[in-house]
Write a structure and sequence with these properties.
37% of the residues lie in helices and 19% in strands. By secondary structure, the chain is an alpha/beta fold. Strands 1-4-3-2-5-6 form a six-stranded parallel β-sheet, sandwiched between helices. It has a three-stranded antiparallel β-sheet with strand order 7-8-9. The termini are far apart. Bound molecules: adenosine monophosphate (AMP). Adenosine monophosphate (AMP) binds next to helix 2 and strand 5.
Length: 289
């Protein structure tokens, strides 16, 4: 397994691989790897000859009061994880080489980036799309894999690939969960034992939405109301948002007709967690029964 730290080495290596006829699969991450990331690696391996996994805690996607400094970083652990998972190249640049002095060009997400997490985290998706565009230009993948866990991010990347004409296929990985249903996240490491128990309220709210949908409920306000009521017994949980939006436009719907995204963000203590479900169910949420 090769470890690359500079953008120019990454691009040279990718060009050489391309010239040798190899198909590159890219898995962008912020490290602190877990089984969710492993699912992405498996998908990349199935669709390419060489798997590049990037580890980059991207400063431009964190707000001034967010957890950029605290975000878990353990390269030795991630390196061992990647070696076992069959990653071929780890690309691990420092912020200074990705954003050199005088850096000034950003990718604007437009309307899809203004809602849901984009409303709570101004500038977040501008940072995400900018770094993903850079990673695409450096790793030159045929396929790049993203998780349904970050549904809005996935939707925005698909839109960016379309609008900016990247010749890259986007593969989607389903949400990978802990045994009790909590969506795996590097940020789960922040949770105390009591918070860890309270964190189950996210997936329980999604199960409420699924149950009502299966019973025939199609009124978004009623489903959201029931989800919110289910959060009340959890004093550690502070709701950021619950929304039901059209899966294509990410705009709110009144009735659940075409495929919708049921998405929520909840603070458990200081930790902000997200989870989501597509309805009608497409299997991507892996919610337990
Ligand atoms: P992160 O390192 O958290 O920025 O995530 C890197 C990629 O892994 C993103 O495409 C995420 O959507 C994906 N990912 C993170 N957690 C999960 C999960 N529990 N299941 C599936 N994909 C995930």
């Amino acid at each position: 397994m090769k470890i690359i730290t500079t953008p120019s080495d990454m691009q040279k290596t990718a060009l050489a691989l391309q010239q040798a006829g190899k198909l590159i699969g890219l898995v962008p991450t912020m490290g602190a790897l877990h089984e969710g990331h492993l699912e992405l690696i498996k998908l990349a391996r199935a669709q390419s000859d060489v798997v590049v996994l990037s580890i980059f805690v991207n400063p431009t996607q964190f707000g001034p009061n967010e957890d950029f400094k605290e975000y878990p970083r353990d390269f030795e652990r991630d390196r061992a994880f990647c070696a076992t998972a069959g990653v071929d190249i780890i690309f691990r640049p420092e912020p200074e080489v990705m954003y050199e002095t005088g850096y000034s060009i950003y990718v604007e997400p437009g309307a899809l980036g203004q809602v849901l997490c984009g409303a709570s985290r101004p500038g977040h998706f501008r940072g995400v799309l900018t770094v993903v565009a850079k990673l695409f230009n450096l790793a030159l993948p045929e396929v790049a894999v993203f998780g349904q866990k970050d549904a809005q991010q996935l939707r925005l990347i698909e839109q960016m690939v379309r609008d900016l004409n990247f010749a890259i296929a986007i593969a989607r990985a389903p949400i990978i969960r802990e045994r009790d249903g909590l969506a795996k996240s590097s940020r789960n490491a922040y949770l105390s034992a009591a918070e860890r128990r309270a964190a189950l309220c996210l997936m329980q709210a999604l199960r409420t939405a699924r149950r009502l949908y299966r019973e025939g409920e199609r009124n978004a306000a009623r489903i959201i109301g029931a989800m919110k009521a289910g959060l009340e017994p959890f004093p550690a949980a502070c709701l950021d948002y619950i929304e039901i939006v059209d899966w294509n436009t990410l705009q709110r719907v009144e009735r659940l007709a075409a495929p919708v995204l049921v998405a929520l963000a909840v603070y458990i203590g200081k930790t902000r967690l997200i989870d989501n479900l597509i309805l009608p169910e497409d299997g991507s949420s892996n919610l337990p029964d």
